[in-house]
Amino acid sequence: MSADLEKNPHGSNLDSIPASTGSSLLEQRVKKELRAVRIARGERQQKEREETESLKELAKYESELAKKYIEECKNILRNNLAAGKFDWISCYKDEPYPPFVFKEPLPRYELIAREMGINRKDPIKEFFLPSLRKRRLKMEEDARRLFNLKLEEYHQREKSARAAYELKRKSFLEEQSQYNHSIDQLCLDLAKGQPGAVESFVRTFLSIMKYPDAFEVEFDARYEQEDRLLVVEGVFCAPHEIPRTIFYQYDEEEHDITPVEMKEQEFADFYQEILLQLSLSAIHLIFFTCPDRLVEQAVFNGRVRAINHEVDPGEPQPCIMTCRVNRDLYRSVELSSVSPRAAFLRFNGIMSTPLTALKPVVPIQKMRQKPSPYPGPEPVPEPQTSTPGPAPYRPGELENMAKELVSDILEEIENNWEKTGEHGGITH
């Protein structure tokens, strides 16, 4: 298997994405869950690669992934145009806390009696040998004492486990209530047009934009309340980070897999198409999700993640495309029926082609450096109980007592047998 395939060419480094500052609990949760889903999909694909029996089958599998990836790239805008409204109901946490279950089995007297070697009651033998009955009764009494000790130990562990469960349950419910309250507060702040709430909300729904897992886009937003203006920036992957393989070819003679990639001009068009669709998808989601009273106009700046020293060594994330569009202009363009390039230009778009050259353009409006502060929730206090909980169980405390008791029982039995053998009689 080639080294390129082992590195998963269609995957993305999702762990390297920093968390946005000034974000709401909803934004943090959504981004975390989406990242986990993407990582899980990548791991599942990698597992399927490893389970492929031959390189020929692997080439077929990788070719199918490459074909699916290209198809997804071509339909980025269409898939996002079909997205529904933001579902606030699904944002709340309403899962119940699991009930308390103490899995440890109850002590059983029968097991203890069997371990101590207590014989079953035999009326005939005990009639002729009364010592057997006395010895059995004595051992049964000791077994019941040991059983009671183990039962007490069991109830102590159960009580301690239940107390720990109640603390965790209380903390869980308080955290859940606090999170749901933060959703209510976010909705209220959003209705008021509070800049921090608008910015966090915009970053949240832009993070669920549909595009292939093979690359990652970071979005940030700044809201100017007086002008009802939203400035959004998307940070795209550099050209070398975008997969460009069309299919994988199996070389029987070399016993290896060779990727067949796009030509330079073909890839330049492909890269431009991806960035245009992502930009238009962001603009659509902004006007589609944000009400008119909040957002009347939007500026979108598209930047790239990597430095191009040949172009502008002082700009680590150069802006290579920018546009400004108001709501009326957005409504006048049917995004599903015009080409992404034509739509972007109608939105007063500016870019220098080919985009693969990463030639910077001046943003129509720059975004403020710092996001508007959004108040974080108060930390959940450590749960306190009105009465002190039971003392923690120390493993071995009652076991040692039980062992000593069993040792005393066995020693007493041994002494009884010695007395019986010494005097030739039966102990009563």
Brief account:
With 428 residues, the protein is α+β, with helices and mostly antiparallel strands. 50% of the residues lie in helices and 11% in strands. It has 2 domains: 3-97 and 174-357, no CATH class; 126-172 and 382-423.
Structural features:
428 residues, alpha+beta, 2 domains, five-stranded mixed sheet, two-stranded antiparallel ribbon, 12 helices, 11% strand, disordered N terminus, disordered C terminus
Descriptive account of the structure:
By secondary structure, the chain is α+β, with helices and mostly antiparallel strands. The chain folds into 2 domains: 279 residues, no CATH class; 89 residues. The chain contains 12 helices and 7 strands. A 5-stranded mixed sheet has the order 1-2-5-6-7. A hairpin with a 4-residue loop joins strand 1 and strand 2. The longest helix is centred in the middle third of the chain and has 63 residues. The termini are far apart.
- Rg result: 36 Å
* Overall residue-averaged pLDDT value: 84
Distance between the termini: 83 Å
Oligomer: single chain
Residue windows where pLDDT falls under 50 for at least 5 positions: 1-20, 385-395, 422-428
Number of strands: 7
Percent helix range: 40-55%
Given the structure, what is the number of helices? 12
Main sheet characteristics: 5 strands, mixed
Total number of distinct structural domains: 2
Global outline: elongated
Relative strand content: 5-15%
Please identify the structural class as seen in this structure: alpha+beta
Strand order of the largest sheet: 1-2-5-6-7
Order of helices and strands: HHHHHHHHEEEEHEEHHEH
